User: What shape does this take?
Amino acid sequence: MLIENKVVVVTGANRGLGRALVGELLRRGAAKVYAAARREETLASLVEAHGARVVPLALDVTRPESIAQAAEKASDVNVLVNNAGLLASYGILSSSLASIRDDFEVNAFGLLATTKAFVPALERAVKRGEAPAVINVLSVASLANMPSLGGYSASKAAASSMSQAIRWELAKLGIQVFASYPGPIDTEMVKALEMPKTSAEAVAKSLLEAVAADVLDAAPDPTGAQFLATFEREPAALAKTFGAMSG
Ligand SMILES: NC(=O)c1ccc[n+]([C@@H]2O[C@H](COP(=O)([O-])OP(=O)(O)OC[C@H]3O[C@@H](n4cnc5c(N)ncnc54)[C@H](OP(=O)(O)O)[C@@H]3O)[C@@H](O)[C@H]2O)c1
Assistant: This one.
């Protein structure tokens, strides 16, 4: 899918991978990027860095009224990037149910609710011949459960399953759905975890390269690519690998 001239919404755009995706989308010729964040004031430096092609958009993916308002404001969109994410829960038995629910609210239901709200805009884009798409940022932890992040991992698996269902439903309308499965990225989310990480900028570049090459399922970093290859060859082996990594 060509990024050039597209009008894109990126959720969770104020920091981390979302922020890097905004820069990379602009570099690839996007006409306009709605940078969505829970608190609009956190987008000031992004707008300052990129100018008028970045439009700040208030969007909390767990709040229906916020989602509806954002979809109304960004009614000319033809690409939705579901990037917003939360890592609140770790071990599935040691984490509180509340923190696991929080991860599901953002990572799974947030992705679904945001997609549902933007479908009418994407359908209008089909009619205009704009080849619309949804890009879902999932995780290697979607592919098999990573017990050290058991709650988060379950929420990202739910997001991946939803993404598959969304792909088949939107294909009938002429809307493509891309899924990305990153390994560890050097962002706030995993700053406490000591492991090799890929920069958000490198992940954003590789993620959009896969989209430009029409690869529907891809891993945007070397660790992610290794785990995705294992999963595609032998899913049960990946679950064992992740189990062993968690001690
Ligand atoms: N970092 C990794 O190792 C890694 C690996 C694989 C996949 N991922 C995925 O990559 C995506 C981006 O994560 P990141 O690494 O860039 O993490 P990050 O730096 O923690 O950024 C998370 C972003 O999501 C936003 N967000 C959280 N809750 C939200 C809500 N209710 N509504 C709207 N936005 C919300 C945050 O906004 P606030 O600033 O308002 O909190 C922030 O912009 C996530 O989907 C994550 O699961 C990350």
